[in-house]
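Morning!

This is the sequence you dropped in the shared folder:
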Amino acid sequence: MIRKLLLVTFIAFFVLPGFGQNTSSVFVRAGLAKADRGDNKGAVKCYNIALEYDSSNTKAYINRGVAEAALGQFSKAIKDYDHAILLARADATIYYDRAVADSELGQSLLAIQDYDKAISLRPNYPKALLNRGNLKDDKRDFEGAIQDYTLALKYKHHYAKAYFDRGNAKAEMHNWQAAKKDYDSAIQFDKKIEQAYVSRGAAKTHLNDLNGAALDYNAALRLNPKDPLVFYNWGRLESKLNNSNESIRCFTKAIELRPDYAVAFYGRGYQYYDQQKFDLALADFSKAIELNPTDGKSYWYRGDVKRILHLHDPCADFRRSAELGTPEAAKALKIFCQ
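The structure's back. Tokens below.
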């Protein structure tokens, strides 16, 4: 009886001061070890236990949120980040993590607000600046995006992704020379960014450096021989060189790799149209419209093919094309559809 009493007293002595907090930290470390091995479900279980021992363990909430995000459970992750922020309002990384989860759920305005907060707490936060720039770019605020990418590069000089994304924003503004310069820097600092070669090739095409563009597309294919964008861009390059058959071959390869590639159907259809293979052109323009019903150019060319082949109601396509803002369609309506 005395031994039992002593044993109970001994255990009680060791479970009282700080036992829950220390045990909670042990389970957080166990969760991190599981997450490092890719076992995010196991990690979440560990963080659950950690929070049972200490419901104010900020690291448990943060890391459970990270594991849940890795599992695609972004709503759950956001709830955990909310708890963590209540416990550590000055931690910029929590706002960053919540912004990433917001973005995954399509909540871009909330994500921008969280990136704003993260950056206000830590101005030299390149990843947050890059991601906020990407959200601005998505909203076609290219100037704002460029400002964020430039700030990211101020704090991380060899940030290849920031050069690449800034180059894309400049390309959207048709500033091809400046875009090419950024793609040059992206490739300088990371020669394995395949899309940087593709985008630089497109910029070179616009700058009439066609041989340089071909070299970049070759470099991209060495990194990823199954990228439909490379073949699509190469098809446009061959079109510019008036190599119609080669252009068709490239567009066809792009379509094989990506059967829902609307602009590749349009591009191949245009080449068939130019070769006066109107049946093939009609099929490609129709497919392009099926995949992208807002493509005014495809409506215009399909309407013109219908007119040439004396098919039913080309004017319906001209009208739709005009509604979508294609200047040639308005002219066609005046000439053929009065």
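Headline: The chain is about 80% helix and 0% strand.

More detail when I'm at my desk.
O.
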